Amino acid sequence: VQLVESGGGLVQPGGSLRLSCAASGFTFSRFGMMWYRQAPGKERELVAAISSSGAVTNYGDSVKGRFTISRDNAKNTVYLQMNSLKSEDTAVYYCRVSVVGINYWGQGTQVTVSS
Fold it and tell me: Cβ(52)–Cβ(99) under 8 Å?
């Protein structure tokens, strides 16, 4: 199983970014996917989750109405569209999948929101 995140960077408050997580090594369309983030000095927190078909999504309270998770099963990729970014969204963002009870994580992508 391999997960590779991309799309992070430096953005001004109020701006937008779209993160991507390319997956391989498992049947992507059969598994739900999740985005997490970890800010310096803080615990890793769940940002968003999506079901295997994409029909069901869930969000952390701090990002509801601003972030959108989606997936393209033909491309084995899950996305996180982040709008109206705030300084408190600054963190390393990770995607995660649980396959046969084992959690797999990507290497993370840094998102920095600053003027």
Answer: no
How far does Cα 84 stand from its chain's mean position?
16
Task: Locate 63 and state its tokens.
Answer: 């990002």
Tens of pLDDT, residue by residue over 96-113, are 999 999 999 999 999 999
Tokens 């940002």 locate to 47
Instruction: Report yes or no: 32 and 52 within 8 Å, Cβ to Cβ.
Output: yes
Residues 6+ apart with CB under 8 A from 35: 19, 21, 46, 47, 48, 49, 69, 78, 80, 93, 94, 95, 96
pLDDT in tens, 30-85: 999 999 999 999 999 999 999 999 999 999 999 999 999 999 999 999 999 999 99
